[in-house]
Design goal:
Helix 6 crosses helix 7. The longest helix is centred in the C-terminal third of the chain and has 13 residues. Helix content is 44%, strand content 8%. The chain is of the alpha/beta class. The two termini are 26 Å apart.
Length: 158
């Protein structure tokens, strides 16, 4: 059973009485999680390799960044029936963003501008935003997306 399901079933066992997140909170982000890594990690999906799990575990106490754009992507994946959740998207996102170590990263003007200036990168806006987020925050990215992994202008943990 995934962390999300456990918290939703017994929130008090996890010390959760009300889930809130502060969009203005400043945090030190050590690595940024791409959407698939974030989803696989929280749902304890077998597609997340042991190596990727180790990387997340070793960085969790220092900060795991998740772009607000990844939240939009979750909604779109559910809308298009490419992702099934055991609860509403709103509930899933609130619990996922309250997970220990996770910090929500806002979409800022520098990220938007950088996303439009990625030399030689493909045209997927979500990938452009996540790469630009990693570049602006000067943090490595954890992803399984080969188009991002092969892009030479972003640091990717492997």
């Amino acid at each position: 059973m995934s962390y999300i399901h456990k918290v939703l079933q017994s929130p008090k066992l996890f010390g959760v009485s009300e889930i809130k997140f502060d969009l203005k909170a400043e945090a030190i982000i050590v690595i940024i999680l791409d959407i698939h890594i974030w989803i696989w990690w929280l749902d304890n999906n077998s597609r997340l390799t042991e190596r990727l799990r180790q990387i997340i575990a070793s960085h969790q106490s220092n900060g795991l960044g998740v772009s607000i754009f990844s939240c939009w992507e979750v909604e779109k994946l559910v809308e298009k029936n490419r992702l099934k959740l055991a609860c509403s998207v709103d509930e899933w996102l609130n619990v996922a963003l309250a997970y220990p170590g996770v910090q929500l990263l806002e979409l800022t003007l520098p990220i938007v501008l950088k996303a439009t200036q990625l030399e030689g990168f493909h045209n997927d806006p979500a990938d452009q935003i996540i790469v630009a987020t990693a570049q602006i925050h000067n943090c490595p990215l954890l992803t399984a997306d080969t188009k991002i992994v092969n892009y030479p202008y972003v640091q990717v943990l492997k």
